[in-house]
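Hey, can you fold this?
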Amino acid sequence: MNTRQTTVDEALDGWLQRVNALCGRFCAKALGPEFAGAIEQYRGGALQMSFVDIAHARLYRTPQEVAANDGKGYYAVFQLAGSACMAQDAQRIVLEPGDITLIDAARPSDFSYGAGARQLSLILPREVVERSLRFAAVRSCEVIAAHTPVAVLANSLVHESARQEGLSLLESEATLDALVSLLRPAISASENADDLHERLFRRALAFIDRHICEPELCPELLAREIGVSLRGLYRMFARKELVVAQYIRNRRLDLCAEALRHAGSDLKLSALGYAWGFSDSSYFSTAFKARFGVAPGEYRKRYQ
């Protein structure tokens, strides 16, 4: 192997190690001796984004790399300079400067770059996307064109966020929510208004939200109110990879967490649980820690 090829391989390996450390496991190949790559990260609270410079290379993720990652999120990819070919499943697109796309981290993907490409990759937690889209299907690997209002506003928001120093956890989470809300029209798969199952599912979610504070809310009550059998209700949620009782519990916990982020230190945690439908304060505390990794009191301290 000649010296030039050795230099390219060493540069590729060094760059890939950095990519894997910041963005999760990928594979890479140099597409010629002109390969060049660099990556730098910005982190502020819940915001985790990487600025990736790459030329003459292929970056890809096989099922093996997917299995080595947690697959809990999406990459919102903002093309800053040059062009890139992005592929996932049967979709293959080309991004030009100002374009945006969404890539599912839980599925294989394949990206190719020519000369002078620069991207900003922002990790969007899966729960943030699903909460905003209310479990509608997500359209990944589709171009959100630079000239569209959605792309203009989203580019402005993410660039301004990267310039800010000292964003609090609450501020950074609000920024993620705002970004996903901006992208929602472009990444949410259109629903078929004639799909009875989809209409019933939306009715079920609406009923849950209206009665979320009531301890009596349960799958049996929900099935009766929307007019389906209990088995039919379970199947309806299973199509979205959801479990009814688990969804109700997690919805309550998410609302409790939101209240804690804005609450003062005088809020009684037991009262909070009761307010959102938990009849047992010990169960509420255990379930909260299982979902968020910390007890309610510690979670509140983070936002104070």
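Oh, and this one too while you're at it.
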Amino acid sequence: MACCCGSSPSPESTPRYRRVLWVALLVNAGMFGVEMLAGMKADSTSLMADSLDFLGDAANYAISLGVLGMGLIWRARASLVKAATLAGFGVVVLGVTLHNLFAGSYPDAPTMGAVGLLALLANLAVLLLLMRYREGDSNMRSVWICTRNDVIGNGAVLLAALGVFGSGTALPDLIVGGVFAFLSLSGGWKIARQARGELRQARDTERLGTTAAESR
């Protein structure tokens, strides 16, 4: 009965979740460097887009670590920052995709495939660590959405490598770049929508508490 009545700590405040975020941050920071160098060498839009995604995710994990244990308002504000970062990444990727489309670049399919597979394995490992934390406030939700989008994007990079190799054109690589842009823009919108709702909820709670205190 004591266990049923007692309050357990929220998942985002546990040391285990903090360790998971640190692992995710280090993996994403390392993969950003690997994929950016490989993408520039292979002239691949999808690899460079994925590397920027890794960089954005590393920053988002760092923000999540910074607001752990803070109140809902601060966590929701951090989520709005992450939503803006994710949407901004989508705009940048869309610009790179359009640039390479008109520039007529042709990527190296074997490099795309090898690095894309490495990135997929890295993100799958992070996704498994985060599986139990996929539900929660907008801050936790944003971490899950970013990692899930990464796995989808890595699979798309592998498909693009196969498409470039089979078709002899850069079109599959450019299509995947467009997919990355869409995932980032839609993910940013979802995170921002939940964060705004949490801010309204927190402010309403504060207002009710103030009113109740004044009535006494």
